[in-house]
Design goal:
There is one protein chain. The chain is an alpha+beta fold. The chain has helices at residues 3-25, 63-75, 77-87, 103-134; strands at residues 36-44, 50-58, 95-100. The protein folds into two domains: 3-101, K homology (KH) domain (GMP Synthetase, Chain A, domain 3), CATH 3.30.300.20; 103-139. The chain is built from four helices and three strands; from the N terminus they run αββααβα. The chain has a three-stranded mixed beta sheet. A hairpin with a 5-residue loop joins strand 1 (36-44) and strand 2. Helix 1 packs across helix 3.
């Protein structure tokens, strides 16, 4: 790992932690109330001027809901940037672009499919055992 990528990673992790605190404690927008918002990842450009912030909203999988919340975050990005610049010890805080992170919902969907498949396999094994015991000759 080069020194530049190490710095980039440190800035990314610090941004993620600070953004999570700001979104949880300082943003009082009523459009973001009553939702569970999580900062899942932050990717910072090589020159540290731009940051892609990936967020998830727990409890709602509606696409229009998610798009509306992302637009609320985008409209609040200057205010959030101002709060970040006060809390982080950087010469220049990266500009923020918010994106919805689908990995959580994809992971939940895959988990449900695996669980469903395992239950189906258990039923097949149980049926095979019953058939085997019915056809088993008595000694």
């Amino acid at each position: 790992m080069t020194e530049d990528s190490g710095r980039k990673e440190k800035v990314s992790q610090e941004l993620k932690k600070t953004l999570a605190n700001i979104l949880r404690k300082d943003i009082r927008d009523p459009r973001l109330s009553n939702i569970m918002l999580t900062v899942s990842d932050v990717e910072v450009s090589k020159d540290l001027k731009m940051a892609r912030v990936f967020v998830t909203f727990l409890g709602n999988e509606n696409i229009s809901f998610m798009e509306s919340k992302i637009s609320v975050l985008a409209s609040s990005s200057r205010y959030i940037h101002c709060l970040l610049s006060k809390r982080m010890k950087l010469r220049r805080v990266p500009s923020l672009n918010f994106f919805y992170d689908q990995s959580l919902i994809s992971g939940l969907r895959i988990s449900r499919l695996i669980t469903k498949s395992l239950k189906a396999d258990e039923k097949i094994v149980q049926n095979e055992k019953e058939i085997f015991h019915k056809n088993e000759p008595f000694a």
